[in-house]
Design a protein that fits this description.
single chain, alpha/beta, 6-stranded mixed sheet
Length: 136
């Protein structure tokens, strides 16, 4: 069983390891502090044991004591996509339901989901025709 390291923020788990040079810019974009001085409250998890895992495989192998309402996954699709849309996976209201989000929207998703202002499903419902949440 994979045990994610303890994180203060919501984990951003790397499963896509093909293009090493893309991981850091994606994480940096997700961690970017807003002009108001607010950061996304996420912590990157670069764990080789997560390499190429699907969301279902990742969730099956995680410890069941999930402290977070959401999990972000930088998978092969996010790495290959020109916008690097990260997969946001619901761990609470609809476990396993997911939506792709631009790295620049991670803070909005984290803030609203962790404070229970919104459910992950609401971001999925607000996704565009490409199934990517780009902001409100």
């Amino acid at each position: 069983m994979i045990t994610l390291p303890p994180t203060n923020g919501v984990p951003v788990v790397r499963t896509g390891f093909r293009h090493e040079s893309v991981w850091q810019p994606v994480v940096t974009a997700a961690l970017k502090i807003t002009p108001e001085g607010i950061h996304a409250g996420v912590d990157p998890v670069d764990e080789p044991a997560c390499r190429d895992l699907t969301v279902d495989q990742l969730l099956d192998r995680l410890q069941d004591d999930r402290r977070h309402r959401i999990l972000f996954v930088v998978d092969a699709t996010a790495i290959a996509d020109s916008e690097h849309a990260i997969l946001a996976v619901d761990l609470y209201d609809g476990p396993g339901r997911s939506v792709r989000v631009l790295p620049s929207t991670v803070q909005d998703v984290v803030d609203n989901v962790t404070m229970a202002n919104m459910a992950c499903a609401e971001f999925a419902d607000a996704a565009d025709a490409c199934a990517v949440f780009r902001g409100f």
